[in-house]
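U., I forgot to send this yesterday:
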Amino acid sequence: MHPILARPARLALYIAVWLGFGALLTGVLVVGNRVPIAWALQFSMPMALLLGFQALSCWYMMQALPARETPWPRLIATWLTAAIVEVGIWLAIGIWWAGFTLPPELQQQYADAPERIAPLLALAGLIAFSMAVISHYMVAAFEHSRQAERSALESQVHAREAELKSLRAQLDPHFLFNSLNSVAALIGTDAAAARRMCYLMSSFFRKSISLGREPAIALAAEIDLVETFLQIEAVRFGDRLRTQLDIADDARALSVPPLVLQPLVENAVHHGIAHLLEGGDIKVSARRRDGLLELAVENPCDPERPPSRGAGVGLNNVRARIETLYGNRGRVDATSQGTLFRVSVLMPAIPLQT
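Result:
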């Protein structure tokens, strides 16, 4: 379908432009040919709309004659022929319409009006048709540019998703090896804790795999995954790991990318709590704010500790996903104030579509 006909708003704007051409043609007829304004309007407006709908054919011809691929001699010759045919038809109809609409009381006075305005109509038709052709090519160039940008963005998204999956594949074994080592250590000292940790690990990986297949999940599901992860880590760290969850009720049904919070909480444990003898509190919060969903993870840290291997991978992972999915509507900020490290994630507050 023609892009102008595809949307009512575009069609309305298109008609308005051609009615403007009709008003201009009316003024020229009244001033240059001294015809009554009422008749000029009655004649010009339908003729302008007729030429406008004739010009819609330019789109289909343009598809068959792309400017970048068609030799210039052929392009010019084809469009010149099309202009002569289209304007010739329009002119013939215009001469008939002029005589048909001329009131009986004016027919004697303006009997030569159709022939007198014919040169003006031919010139106006050629100019308007030429502008229509140029406009269609400009619209096509704009659409081509947008399509190229869209394709580039899609390629970037696919590349980013592949990179994120690769990073996720690197992070999961790290967590799995640590957990298995903890299970092995607990078997000899606390068999019940080892069994509980195995059960929690099974639940965590089952949820992680299930949620990771979805393009978007409810925040409540992500919080449930985070709670399972923290329960596993609580078996390892005992009283050193304390958690606080502050999740607003009106935020739980909002849509979030899967596994967006878990890497941040994992960082809070491995790069924060694990380096403090006394441990500390990990605070996870979520609330709506001005049409946005704000997620935050806070943890104590040792500002003097040496950098850990892999530090920042999880944070960069989340930042890349938010930027790719939401552009300038999303943001990830990380701040460090003394012994407190905080990561906040902002994204549009969109209910999950079920």
